[in-house]
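re the bet — no i am not wrong, look at it urself. input seq straight from the record:
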Amino acid sequence: MKRIATVYLAGILVFAACLTTAALSAPLSQDIRETALQTETGNTDRGPAGTGGEEQTPPRKSPYDKPAFWGTRLINLPTTTAMEAKDVLFRISHRFYGPVDEGYDTFFGLDSGANVFFSLGYGITDKLGISIGRARLFSEWEMGLGWAVIEQGVTAGLPFSAAVHAGFDWVTQEGLGALKWNIQLSLSRQVSRRLSVLAVPSFSTNTDFQDLDPEGTFAMGLGCRYMIFEDFSIALEWIPVIAGYKDVQNGWGLGLEKKIGGHVFQVFVTNAFGLTSSQVVPGGDLRIGDFDFRVGFNIFRTF
């Protein structure tokens, strides 16, 4: 059955490589057309000729017509994408418990049940938003606050974006009870119209709350997204634990993303089944060396 899992992963990689090759071999990319247009129209507006008018500095705007990330999550890591003022964001996420190498008996893990997460977010301003959600695992609630501090090219012309995510997770399962505080700093750079990179230093308390002497976890999440076609991307992330409690292995994920109107769809393979911030940071329970991984998906809908 592990051969099936290996073939499954290899198929995804080959498919992504073929799509990337096709995109890169296009005779004239949108990036080139956009650069040419900016060159033609990039002159600074000036006052009327002969009047000695001062130069009018145009307002700063994002250097690209596409955002660095469509969703508020790359896979598990929070991105620098923020809800706009008065927007409502609905998110549903699944992580199937069973690994793919269980084979056809459990339909490659899809019959094994899932950790499910539902959340609602609201944009207080264009930079500040709140959210509340619940994960099936441990009947865990998550309350969060997100603040987009820096926008690339807009905030003082800085070449990166930054967002702070803070909140807490509350375990409400009968017989258990714990409060776990989270703080994450998302740092991203949109290298080109198609390529964006992400770094997310993260800390959560009480990540092994069932232990007699619980401790927290500090991890450094890393990820990237490459837009292969218009609104169709491949995403990759890795979350190495730097200090504190760690699960069997550092968390990772590899998947595909598609934006359709107000929806963002993501499907991927990962070694983790956690969904709240404190469940994600410690890593996953499956080893990549054994070609063990599970299927998951995220759906975002903005109203």
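see?? The first helix runs from residue 2 to 24. told u. also The first strand starts at residue 88 and ends at 96. so pay up
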